[in-house]
Amino acid sequence: MGRKWNNIKEKKASKDANTSRVYAKFGVEIYVTAKKGEPDPEANRALKVVLERAKTYNVPKAIIDRALEKAKGSGEESYEELRYEGFGPGGTMLIVEALTNNVNRTAPQVRSAFSKNGGNMGVSGSVAYMFDSTAVIGVEGKSADEVIELLFDAEVDVRDVLEEDEAVIVYAEPDQFHAVQEAFKSVGITEFTVAELTMLPQNFVAVSEDAQAQFDKLIDALEEIEDVQQVYHNADSEEE
């Protein structure tokens, strides 16, 4: 399970190093999620999840407020949620999620990123069956045993609770995201090292040193696409 946390850590570190790009992507995601429901996170659970994620990436309040105000307005900027699946160097599998107002722009860009960096796109369903949608929430200052007891008392079911890198990481079903957070908040824990709804691979692929450089280029190329929100993969990122 530690490998899963390493994958999330690497993705988060990459985003932390590209803050302006990350903030822009969150702005779009917040706008789209608020527009689909209510611009009030208490009335829109999906929006609440996005805002919790934004908090862990230190997205400025001004960007969040601007996206929410835009969603409240009369403008109708239409976005589509898209998922692309493909294969990368070293036998890796990737899922690419995008929000776009121009499908004819996004699809060729994703396809080009794959083809120019040792990969190729697959058909819908060719990769997704090897990943599980998962809520991942991390806290500091508690032991795994304390967290397990806390979640038990709150009657929250989770997949796993592990101590990893001085934090306790909770893996749960996506519909338990809020329940896990509320359990922590009930004992005064309001800051999370990670709060994600993510796609975790069921199995990992060890990437050779030769394939690693090209794999990294593929990930960078995909994440640089303006419409791409998330890139998930099954490359083994565990340090030797």
How would you characterize the overall build of this protein?
It holds the Pfam family Transcrip_reg. Keywords: Coiled coil, Cytoplasm, DNA-binding, Transcription, Transcription regulation. It is found in: Cytoplasm. With about 240 residues, the chain is of the alpha+beta class. The chain has three domains: about 15-70, Integrase, N-terminal zinc-binding domain (Arc Repressor Mutant, subunit A); about 80-130 and about 205-235, YebC, transcriptional regulation domain (Alpha-Beta Plaits); about 130-200, 2-Layer Sandwich (Alpha-Beta Plaits), CATH 3.30.70. Helix content is about 45%, strand content about 25%. The protein contains eight helices and eight strands, in the order H-H-H-H-E-E-H-E-E-H-E-E-H-E-H-E. The chain has helices at about 1-15, 20-35, 45-55, 60-70, 105-115, 145-155, 175-185, 210-225; strands spanning about 80-90, 90-100, 120, 130-140, 160-165, 165-170, 195-200, 230-235. The strands form two sheets. Strands 3-1-2-8 form a four-stranded antiparallel sheet. Strand 1 and strand 2 (about 90-100) form a beta hairpin. Helix 2 (about 20-35) runs antiparallel to helix 3 and helix 2 (about 20-35) runs parallel beside helix 4. The longest helix is centred in the first third of the chain and has 18 residues, at about 20-35. The relative contact order is 0.19. The mean pLDDT is about 90.
